Amino acid sequence: MPARGRTVLVVGATGRLGVAIAKALAARGDRPLLAARDPEKLASIARSIAEGGDGARVPFVHADLTDPGAVDTLMRGIRDAGPRVDDVVLACGPFPRTPFATLRRDDLVHTLTVHAIAPLLLAHALAEDLTLAKGSVVALSDAGVTRPFTNHVAYLTAKGALQTGLRALAVELAPEVRVNVIALGIVADPEADDDPLRTHRLATRSPLGRFGTPEEVVHATLSLLDATWSTGEIWGIGR
Ligand SMILES: NC(=O)c1ccc[n+]([C@@H]2O[C@H](COP(=O)([O-])OP(=O)(O)OC[C@H]3O[C@@H](n4cnc5c(N)ncnc54)[C@H](OP(=O)(O)O)[C@@H]3O)[C@@H](O)[C@H]2O)c1
């Protein structure tokens, strides 16, 4: 089990899963470094983590990952924040509905950029930090990559690219850095409000008969961060 007190960059730290992961990291004695797009949301989450802990300031960096300069912007912010990054959690990106009949090139470019291209370039930019720290990268992907659902070709394509890219990275950065993926079933379904029966229908498709909780995703994420004999793995949960 690695010693605590590691600086963990959480990308997507304002999302429902990213917030839970950042809070759990702080609670166990690691130092989350928050990243997302919206600086106001980030500032508010950073304050609430600091208030719930020892009061120490929680640093954050922000950029829109669709911006071609996003990785440079994040890296400047990370260097200004001070500490070297020891580990990375990738929990970013939207879940765009892209009906096949109206699928556009922009849908694919946008979604691939946020979910795959920018995260891979960020890991590339942090490779030296991660190597020095014998670090770990854990990314949240989607069970739909291997069991696709409708209306999300762009998203599923992007998550598939992320998974393949990270498995390649696991080989490139071995043995110092470990890179693993969690392929999640559903925690929250953004379309549930439009169709109340949908939740029941989707949940009962899973052998466990229900959606997951952020706490269960936190548990899997921390476990993989600490799994010193795993790399290039894709751990399916809640499928
Ligand atoms: N929730 C689920 O049921 C589920 C299931 C399978 C997989 N996943 C995956 O798990 C991860 C986290 O999911 P979630 O439900 O926590 O997502 P979420 O609540 O929608 O949060 C998404 C996060 O990504 C950031 N983000 C979105 N677009 C961005 C952009 N262009 N540039 C920079 N940051 C951007 C958001 O930042 P801002 O707030 O600053 O915009 C936010 O921090 C995602 O990768 C998702 O695909 C989730």
Keywords:
Rossmann fold; 7-stranded parallel sheet; binds NADP nicotinamide-adenine-dinucleotide phosphate; globular; 239 residues
Explained architecture:
Strand 5, helix 6 (153-173) and strand 6 form a beta-alpha-beta unit. The model has no long low-confidence stretch (mean pLDDT 95). The chain has a single domain, classed as Rossmann fold (3-Layer(aba) Sandwich), CATH 3.40.50. Helix 1 (16-27) crosses helix 8 (214-226) and helix 4 packs parallel to helix 6. Helix content is 45%, strand content 15%. It is an alpha/beta fold and 239 residues long. The chain contains eight helices and seven strands, in the order E-H-E-H-E-H-E-H-H-E-H-E-H-H-E. It has helices at 16-27, 39-52, 70-81, 105-125, 127-132, 153-173, 196-203, 214-226; strands at residues 7-11, 31-36, 60-62, 87-90, 136-142, 178-184, 234-237. The longest helix is centred in the middle third of the chain and has 21 residues, at 105-125. It is globular, with a radius of gyration of 17 Å. A seven-stranded parallel sheet has the order 3-2-1-4-5-6-7, sandwiched between helices. The two termini are 27 Å apart. NADP nicotinamide-adenine-dinucleotide phosphate is lined by residues 12-18, 36-38, 41, 64-66, 91-95, 114, 140, 142, 184, 186-188. The site of NADP nicotinamide-adenine-dinucleotide phosphate has 26 residues, from helix 1 and strand 5.
